[in-house]
Write the structure tokens for this entry.
Amino acid sequence: MSNLGTVEKAYHESVMTHFENKTNATFSERIEALIHEFLSTDRITSELNNDELNKIFSQVSIPEEGLEESDYLQGMTEHVIGHTINTGSPYFIGHMTTLLPSFMRPISKLIATMNQNVVKVETSKSLTFYEKQALAMLHKAVYNQNDDYYKTVLSDHSSPLGLITSGGTLANIAALQCARNHSLAPFADIEQEGFFAALNKAGFTQSVVIGSSLAHYSIEKSMGLLGLGKQNLLSIPVDKNQKIDLMALRETLVNCANQRIHVSAIVGVAGSTECGSFDPLSEMADLAEEFGVYFHVDAAWGGPLVFSDQHRNLLSGVERADSVTIDGHKQLYLPMGIGIVLFKNHETGRLITNEANYIIRAASPDLGRMGVEGSRPANVCYLQAALCLIGKKGYAHLLDNSIKTAHQMASDIQSSLDFELLNEPQANIFLYRFIPEAYRGLTQYSVDDNQEIDRYNIQLQELQLSRGATFVSRTLFKIDSEQSVVGLRVVIANPLTTVMHCRAVLEDQRNIVRSLESSQA
Ligand SMILES: *Cc1c(COP(=O)(O)O)cnc(C)c1O
């Protein structure tokens, strides 16, 4: 460094402070203070709107020289943190993102400090095996094979019991990739030759995936990505309980067989995103078996119910699925960015392996051999922490409680005059709507009535978010084969949300409606 000028030298020193082995105490303390402040309110958000935020963040030059830490932190405090969404508030009951266990915060520090890359053993060592173990634990919770099975599979590195991904979407993509490859494997190596060639060799001209109209949009997205084609997702109507219509499913399978249309997979949803319904998985598994089709269950939301003696019946049949998606960042209470796919048969995962000489060696335990993702963080530490510290009974308790709270809120709504329950909660998600005074007590609504009621509910939901005290989300809900109406969507997952908070949310909505009506009067 002797040949550096004084200015360069000073700059060198200032940059290098960021890489010193000791943590900057002041910086850490100020971050701790920000965390404390973030956690100290129940409010959902500030009143700044999107246009105002857009303006604040319109400066696009990267600083030439690093800012003083205090200036950087000041900007974060002023412009960012106070205008985020308080997903951990007990009054935030409209989305699947919620409060995390407090131990996740120090664990995240540990993960960032170790900066492991679980793509391969050479950059993660113990964590590769820690991840395999965590996947086996979840596999056992869903598929309940015997201990010898797990011992054998864990020591055979050629086939995975599942993958940890960055979310449910990536998990569903991996599952459908397996499904696509699975049935055409006797005819061609799809990954090598492509889907079109494989389909041709097998003597088909079309291939479809079949799911209910409530399948998550990531299924459709996967179809596009995997070359299966979005238009080849056959959408089966749901019955009055929002479960896939089994007669229609059978009919579609028969039609496909008669017309020599290849079926890549049947997809069941266990906890639909829109309204929380659970498909009849056992009956779907029967049909999949009868027609020899791959069966995937998207249990991104409802998967953790395997831990609950009281509600596991909603998942009955899941153990017969060829693959199951479970989101870590939903009801496993892990930080954002963690999905999981499990394969009933470990051989299934072999259908999506990749190798590269310099990095991912064949027959190595490297996790990066499977799936589309490359470098990945050691998110398994969050998963292991939660499984170890919360345990099966802890999860059962959390889930049973939120389901109970959802049912209580639904029954409050049902017995009220101003709100209408749109669907009974099967677990902890349901829809309802506000009914303006002029429409109360009617047994049926015309299309015009529904449009007017929709308008009310949209306004109500938007104003509720901008006021920032409480929150539910909204969606469109099919009430019959022709009509959809706006539904207010409740998702109960925060362990701190009690029926009192739910009542406060409804009360807040009543107040908002009153203010809307008086401003329009
Ligand atoms: C959330 C969800 C997904 C997608 O998961 P991401 O983690 O958002 O990628 C897929 N299916 C269902 C049923 C979901 O609830």
Residues 380-414 form the longest helix (35 residues).
